Amino acid sequence: MRTDRWIVARVFVLLCLWLQACTTLPANGGKEETHHLPPARDTPTAQYAHAEVAKHQGQSGFRLLTLSTNALLSRVVMADHAKHSIDLQYYIFANDMTGHLLMQHLLAAADRGVRVRMLIDDNNFDDKDHLFEALNAHPNIDVRLFNPLQTRNPSTLSRATQFMLEWRRLNRRMHNKSFIVDNTVAVIGGRNIGDPYFDAGSDTHFRDLDVVAIGPVVPQASEAFDAYWNCAAAYPLNQLAKDKASGQRLAAARQLLQHDVRSFAQSDYAQTALDQLPDGPTADRQGAWFWGDAELVADQPEKIEADGDVPALRIGPRLKTMLDGAQHSVIATTPYFIPGEQGTRHLVSRVQSGISIQILTNSLASTDEPAAHAGYVHYRKAMVEGGVQLYELKPSSGQDQPSTAMGKSSGISLHAKSIVVDGRQVFIGSLNMDQRSKLLNTEMGVIVDSPGLAKAITDFFHTATQPSNAYQVTLDPASHQLVWHAEDKNGPVTYQSEPEATAKRRTEVTFLRLLPIDSLL
């Protein structure tokens, strides 16, 4: 039996070495370096945006996208109004219904002569139908993958092997999210491109936040995009694909996208989206903006190559300065909350100095990452004991998604990332409050000094943390154990352990808590 195991182990090692030798990344030194175009001034959208900005002394304007349907259709409308350029950067651009919808509108923009640059992290990249390769064959579309695996559409075994052999490199991902049109208007926030982020999927529905932005912050976003687009970790897709995409493949992709988008247009989802559109904050409609001095913050792409923590490469110190400047209150929303021992002590010390700190994160029943929850529970009791007010999202609110609330009736999970300080300063972006966002992945967002935007996000938070939508975690004075307070259809209810979580998930988290993996979460 020992001999058999030794043979299997030896064969596996030889297989790994063979895969490493046979599949290496191509040289990436000869790619063309391109940059953003000047802000447009010859389109109705640009003329409107510049006129509005001129009224506000160079401040940036923002609209908060809370409705998932508006978040999707705002991107569609922006693509349809583009005349010169579209630059988009995402951790996930899914090969699904809403992904196909945006692909078709990007393709239509390219047909009009718009230059489209798509930068996608390779960790979740799925091109089984060769749609991205086909788009990349269009003369006006350029697709690049960030920090790619060595093979396209790898099998489970191949992916696992590559991660084992190149763990340090492949464990670091680009988590940034931006959608920039004509260097004039941008969407920045927490949403990826895919059905779960727009309420169009059949499983998890993420509750998230984005902002549509105009003003000086947009060219800042374009500068950040260029830094990633031209960095060493961004590989042109045509350097990685085995076969060069042809005009025939692009024609086939057009037919597939037309079929899928026609089916989408006839769906109940599309009708609901159109019904809700007039009442929501969409990119093509004039209306109220939240104005304020704004700063685009983004990690440097070199962060993924750094040995250890290099604060100069990341946005964490800038956010810590914002948090440490709080005089009265901090309200934060994050799907994954792993502050670590030092972070926990710091939050508690801020509460003891008189600052109110309220944090909304996922419950065990609502999270899509049990490992992250396992890291969170190490620090939960200490935070509650220290006066931090913790709320955990319930997995379902049992109602349709209103403009500031939390969801449909099944598979609800929090994905929004925001901070409000003293009812005035705001951060909204891609960064989670965990060690992975701090040290491993690259992140971005906007910091805005705007009481109006702060109030809108605070309203989102207060609706989300109502007892019908979330559990408040407190300490039972008698048992000195954590308890969860909420409301159901019969009134107030208190739970003595993680509410609504399955036995399987409880067991999983109990096991994961034993592993020293906080730095990977």
From TrEMBL:
PROSITE patterns: PLD (PS50035), PROKAR_LIPOPROTEIN (PS51257). CDD domains: PLDc_ymdC_like_1, PLDc_ymdC_like_2. Residues 170-197, 410-437 form the PLD phosphodiesterase domain. Residues 1-21 form the signal peptide. This is Phospholipase. Keywords: Signal. GO terms for biological process: cardiolipin biosynthetic process. One of its GO terms (molecular function) is phosphatidyltransferase activity. Gene3D superfamilies: Endonuclease Chain A (3.30.870.10). SUPFAM superfamilies: Phospholipase D/nuclease. It comes from Dyella japonica A8.
